[in-house]
Write a structure and sequence with these properties.
4-stranded antiparallel beta sheet, mainly beta, single chain, 50% strand
């Protein structure tokens, strides 16, 4: 079982930056691949970024590539999403998710791969 709590959301002007944190509890956080997803009003939840549990392999959605960076600190049971050059279209509720992964270099883009989810944190980017 993995419990996840996001923090760090807020209101920022276009071009600004935010860093989201995802605090995990439970013995399996360090054994889990992580992902960040977002959902804007009236839209479906969409994949943002993912990171493997062991060697830090990452994968990003094209819409955030070069602007967002996913990372994790297993010693602190915490994952991060550094968001730079924010745009109004990045406005959404951001969710972190985790899934226990047998392979240290595996990551997952599909929301269906993740059984554990945080409650979400609102990010609003003003123009």
């Amino acid at each position: 079982q993995v419990q996840l709590v996001e923090s760090g959301g807020g209101l920022v002007q276009a071009g600004g930056s935010l860093r989201l944190s995802c605090a995990g509890s439970g013995r399996t956080f360090s054994s889990s691949a992580m992902g960040w997803f977002r959902q804007a009003p009236g839209k479906e939840r969409e994949f943002v970024a993912t990171i493997s549990r062991g060697d830090g392999r990452t994968y990003y959605a094209d819409s955030v590539k070069g602007r967002f960076t996913i990372s994790r600190d297993n010693a602190k049971n915490t994952g991060y999403l550094q968001m730079n050059s924010l745009k109004p279209e990045d406005t959404a509720v951001y969710y972190c998710a985790a899934t226990v992964s047998y392979y240290s270099d595996s990551y997952y883009r599909g929301a269906d791969n993740y059984p554990y989810w945080g409650q979400g944190t609102q990010v609003t980017v003003s123009s």
